[in-house]
Specification:
The structure holds two protein chains of two kinds. Chain A is mostly helical. Chain A is built from five helices and no strands. Chain B starts with a helix and ends with a helix. The relative contact order of chain B is 0.10. The chains are: A mainly alpha, B mainly alpha. Chains A and B meet through helix 1, helix 2, helix 4 and helix 5 of A and helix 1, helix 2, helix 5, helix 6 and helix 7 of B.
Chain lengths: 98, 194
């Protein structure tokens, strides 16, 4: 357990921590690129770390899912009561006078 | 246009499109009262500029465009809260996403990684969409706004940031946290179910 902890700290020192890597994955996605140093460390870490490799895929999957989910025509249908609509109409006409 | 005709037009639009716009607005903002306000403001805006509506797009499209603009304006207001203001909601979410990493900031491996890959065509699954909806709605309002702004605006990140009045840095950090929370939610509610 102690050894594992030490290895993790060493990895963090040389490359980034997983936590940092996940932020860089997003930063790269949004900005389009990273500095050479950040990009290199990111690549090396990800090649050595299965969890981050998985996360890189999951991050893309989430992007896709969000877009498609929001685009889904399955918007829950809601209805406004007739008197609500009438009130709305009246408010607008009142506000538009003068 | 004569006032009497304008009123008739507006009345027609309210009766025909209010439900549609209300459904759309409710989907995009969490609060149904707010959604109703946004719909009213949409009709008000439309009425004010009704003379400019030449009917070259359908009324429905035109009204939806106005509504989307109102939603973005709302998002901008929400996003512009002072960064020093740590709301309870944000704190809870920040703590939850921090807990996904151990004391050395390494992933707490949960063994569910392969499950993401195995599931294809998730979005065809009605249940999944329902679960994902819950996860989205659980995001703090500011995070939710940033995530959906991309979809509503269909613009590149720098344009989105300009619209919302936030920095690029702020934007990607929020998106990052939001995605972590979504991952955690899906791991718990869908892939893991424990």
């Amino acid at each position: 357990m102690v050894w594992k902890g030490l290895m993790e700290k060493l990895m963090n020192f040389m490359l980034f921590s997983c936590k940092k890597v996940t932020t860089l994955i997003e930063k790269k996605e949004v900005l389009g690129k990273l500095s050479w140093m950040q990009n290199t460390k990111l690549k090396v870490h990800t090649s050595m770390c299965d969890a981050c490799k998985s996360y890189a895929d999951q991050s893309r999957q989430l992007d896709d899912t969000i877009m498609k989910h929001l685009d889904n025509k399955d918007v829950p249908q809601k209805i406004l009561q007739d008197d609500t609509k009438s009130k709305m109409l009246q408010t607008i006409l009142d506000k538009s006078e003068g | 246009m004569e006032t009497i005709n304008k009123e008739k037009e507006l009345s027609g639009w309210v009766h025909e499109y209010a439900d549609y716009l209300y459904s759309w607005a409710s989907y995009k903002v969490k609060d149904s009262n707010l959604a109703q306000d946004l719909v009213q403001e949409t009709f008000l805006s439309a009425y004010t500029s009704i003379d400019g509506f030449k009917g070259n797009s359908s009324a429905k499209t035109w009204l939806t465009t106005i509504l989307n603009r109102k939603i973005i304006d709302h998002y901008r207001k929400v996003s512009r809260r002072p960064e020093s203001l740590i709301t309870e909601e944000n704190e809870r979410s920040l703590a939850a996403t921090d807990s996904m990493f151990n004391e050395n900031n390494r992933w707490q491996v949960n063994g569910l990684e392969s499950m993401w890959q195995e599931e294809e065509n998730l979005l065809d699954d009605h249940q999944f969409n329902h679960t994902f909806d819950i996860c989205l709605k659980d995001l703090p309002p500011v995070w939710y706004a940033s995530v959906t702004a991309k979809f509503i605006l269909q613009k590149k990140p720098d344009a989105i940031c300009q619209e919302l009045g936030i920095s690029m840095s702020n934007y990607w950090q929020v998106i990052h946290r939001a995605k972590l929370q979504l991952k955690k939610c899906l791991d718990t509610k869908w892939f893991g179910k424990d």
